[in-house]
Amino acid sequence: MSPSQRIAVAGGTGHIGLHIVESLLSLSPTVPFLHIIVLSRSIKPEKSKITFAGSSAPIIAVDYNDTSGIESILREHNIDTVISALYGDADVFDIAQQNLLTAALNVPTIRRFAPSELSIDSETADSVTMYYLKKRPILQRLREIQAARSGPGIPSFEYTKFVTGLVMNYLASGNPKSSGEDAHGHMFAHKVIFDFENGTAEIPGDGQALFWMSRIQDMGEFIAHATQLDVWPEQMDLVGDMRSMNEIRALAEAILGKKLDVTYLSEEELQLRLGPNPSSLTNVVAEVMISFARGEVKRSETYAGLKDIVKPVGLEQFLRTWWS
Ligand SMILES: NC(=O)c1ccc[n+]([C@@H]2O[C@H](COP(=O)([O-])OP(=O)(O)OC[C@H]3O[C@@H](n4cnc5c(N)ncnc54)[C@H](OP(=O)(O)O)[C@@H]3O)[C@@H](O)[C@H]2O)c1
């Protein structure tokens, strides 16, 4: 296989997707013939393309229920790689991604597909029922397609699962810096587990569980560079940092210069937080905390094939930037 050259990013207007697109555009000056398109359900007249670092990617309208329409666009642009950064309500998310894959498989130039993972590993996070279980069927299908297209004389096909941990930028929510909004990149501020602004933390379990996190900007860069690898493994992990909740507490207390008021939450207490809307952010966060408490996050390291190319910011540097 060879590096990706003609890449479609579905959901490239989104929180994480936009970082992926910008990082890909940053590669344009050094990667000849790189062509990026962004798939979106709607185009605003004033925003028909994404421009970054002197390069642009057109935003092209798609209907995720119309596979032949998506196929035509991928054909027209001779796309070889599809990266999904889709999200949306839990019940439509899998359908949209599966339709995207169905369309891609009909396009002869397509040889790579990355589904929308971009978090803790959906295949170990059994407790995140609303969203992450919805990420599993497409992975199963991708494995079957890859196996079916691995024989001699058959155009080969690769997929990869980008596992990045949670967005580290959440840990800058409420920071006191005048440029504090910049901490979030294209993500919104949201306090997860730690509320450094108010000096509190709600830690799942006994605090021994691992918290895996990466900066959203590093996620974009990692994925962009991954497109330039000759071979895609089935999983590529990015580990900005990974430490126990208690270790994070100690690090934060040292940087903030004050003790945090910490509540340890049992699984039963976290279950009580689940509300009636399965797609709500409250529910997803509560389920992710239960997943942490159950030890479903496994220790990992940044994918060896990229660790000398992408140097993610670690937690200490990140916290010092925004809290000291
Ligand atoms: N690691 C973490 O902490 C973390 C945090 C958040 C999300 N994530 C993961 O990252 C991925 C992307 O999340 P995100 O927050 O970046 O997503 P997002 O910005 O909420 O949505 C991404 C894009 O999906 C498209 N979309 C929204 N609803 C849709 C629907 N019903 N049907 C089809 N497309 C729809 C939208 O694009 P258009 O409107 O342009 O079509 C949107 O820009 C997901 O897999 C999510 O689980 C991880």
Automatic annotation (TrEMBL):
InterPro entries (alphabetical): NAD(P)-bd_dom_sf (IPR036291), NmrA-like (IPR008030), NmrA/Isoflavone_reductase-like (IPR051609)
Highest rank taxon of the organism: Eukaryota
Organism: Tetrapyrgos nigripes
Domain NmrA-like per the UniProt entry, residue ranges: 4-277
Entry's family note: Belongs to the NmrA-type oxidoreductase family. Isoflavone reductase subfamily.
Entry protein name: NmrA-like domain-containing protein
UniProt GO MF annotations: oxidoreductase activity
Family matches, as Pfam families: NmrA (PF05368)
Keyword entries, A-Z: NADP, Oxidoreductase
